[in-house]
Amino acid sequence: MTIETISTNRSHGGIQGVYSHTSAETGTTMTFSVFVPEHADGAKLPVLWYLSGLTCTHANVTEKGEYRAACAEHGVIFVAPDTSPRGDDVPDAEDEYDFGKGAGFYVDATEQPWAAHYRMRSYIEHELPEAIAANFPADMARQSITGHSMGGHGALTIGLRNPERFRSISAFSPIVAPSEVPWGEKALGRYLGTDRASWREYDAVALIEDGARHDHILVDQGTADDFLVEQLRTHRLAEACDAAGTDATIRLQAGYDHSYYFISTFMAEHVAWHAERLKL
Amino acid sequence: MTIETISTNRSHGGIQGVYSHTSAETGTTMTFSVFVPEHADGAKLPVLWYLSGLTCTHANVTEKGEYRAACAEHGVIFVAPDTSPRGDDVPDAEDEYDFGKGAGFYVDATEQPWAAHYRMRSYIEHELPEAIAANFPADMARQSITGHSMGGHGALTIGLRNPERFRSISAFSPIVAPSEVPWGEKALGRYLGTDRASWREYDAVALIEDGARHDHILVDQGTADDFLVEQLRTHRLAEACDAAGTDATIRLQAGYDHSYYFISTFMAEHVAWHAERLKL
């Protein structure tokens, strides 16, 4: 569980770091960023995970996410992993921004040639948390998760499968039903194969239909998001929750698009919302 | 004074735009960004100018500056110009990050081959303000100015030369005495020639020595800034103010470096400080 420090910068009273480590799950070097707010010696802080969207690395949210002021205020560690394995040994889909590198979809692939390296589910659910616990002042009994777009899908599915581990789940413009939309059908079909039953644990709407529940879900979606109608289909999450008799706070934000200009607008509110639940 | 809209994104309740126009001063197309907070129909908002540092365009602060929440809260328009003329017709110093494109130093060059295009002083002092006044809900009677590094030099010198126009001046890790440091000696020497008397109006310390004054100056400087000792030399500004019997708030921020992780930490405080003076 040794990690290498790529950079550290003092910011908002804490330390914004970028780190790398050798992942047994992906068989590659993985890079991630961690913001640790100022804290008392020996204190352990709760952890908010942020999963990024298609084409992103840890860097997009680290530079543009505007989370540090809120994390410093509430005393929350912020962890931003990469979105796929990287490197020359990792198979990729050239010229496809929505599959392969930068598009791991937070699954453990079962199909060849993806199965060896594309193990982002196990990486996020097991391996990276161990590295965080071993190297940062993190209270792993207090975790929450959020994400954007493909990463919103990741946050919802990982959170719904692990409600005991994550006290709250939020998402910015998530893909809520990948089985039903082009991005998801392509990715799940190629990573997992044609048996759609195997896709259901990677689909937030299907997970809720199949009985998964979480009492604390918050979703923000911009109404001017070009991907809303075809790829994100936020209303499917609302319908699934209604049908299941469970609750989620799903907000449509007028005039906002799919960019970090949207995410950064509501980031402080999400951090505060998670922090409230992490302090219980 | 027509401008072209490159992009607009809703953010923090307002509109973050990127625009371009044909500049008569530089003889090129110039790009800049403007954030306009939500406001009442017909309202005119005060303007905070942000001048960027070496190698930057408008984009760095627009993406990483974390100013929008504070500008929205205080109702301040934020304008971020480019740092030099651009394009194939503009002479450049290849492989020199600190001269030529991206390094206009906010001067009107008098030496060849720079004099034709490198007119960032007149562009910032006259031409761009007219474009802002003509195209945005800006109250040009209420302006303030800030900037980073080379842009901190720009903010201090432009502000000190125009105290009636700018109600307050702030800077993040500014070059305070370019005549005395390698970055400045190189740039001023090549843009303005060897007569150092002509450099003094582009040097904050020299301007104060020569009688320029401003009642509202705020500077933040990180102590872990790699450029502090050789290029920035913040103490020279303090010394010049002391010798002149004038006041400036100069703060050393422990552990902070030269990056946007530093700028973004103190940005909200600078915006609030300017806003207080813009509301008088």
From TrEMBL, chains A, B:
<dbReference type="GO" id="GO:0005829">
    <property type="term" value="C:cytosol"/>
</dbReference>
<dbReference type="InterPro" id="IPR029058">
    <property type="entry name" value="AB_hydrolase_fold"/>
</dbReference>
<feature type="active site" description="Charge relay system">
    <location>
        <position position="225"/>
    </location>
</feature>
<dbReference type="InterPro" id="IPR014186">
    <property type="entry name" value="S-formylglutathione_hydrol"/>
</dbReference>
<keyword id="KW-0719">Serine esterase</keyword>
<feature type="active site" description="Charge relay system">
    <location>
        <position position="149"/>
    </location>
</feature>
<feature type="active site" description="Charge relay system">
    <location>
        <position position="258"/>
    </location>
</feature>
<keyword id="KW-0378">Hydrolase</keyword>
<dbReference type="GO" id="GO:0046294">
    <property type="term" value="P:formaldehyde catabolic process"/>
</dbReference>
<comment type="function">
    <text>Serine hydrolase involved in the detoxification of formaldehyde.</text>
</comment>
<comment type="similarity">
    <text>Belongs to the esterase D family.</text>
</comment>
<protein>
    <recommendedName>
        <fullName>S-formylglutathione hydrolase</fullName>
        <ecNumber>3.1.2.12</ecNumber>
    </recommendedName>
</protein>
<dbReference type="InterPro" id="IPR000801">
    <property type="entry name" value="Esterase-like"/>
</dbReference>
<dbReference type="GO" id="GO:0018738">
    <property type="term" value="F:S-formylglutathione hydrolase activity"/>
</dbReference>
<dbReference type="Pfam" id="PF00756">
    <property type="entry name" value="Esterase"/>
</dbReference>
<dbReference type="GO" id="GO:0052689">
    <property type="term" value="F:carboxylic ester hydrolase activity"/>
</dbReference>
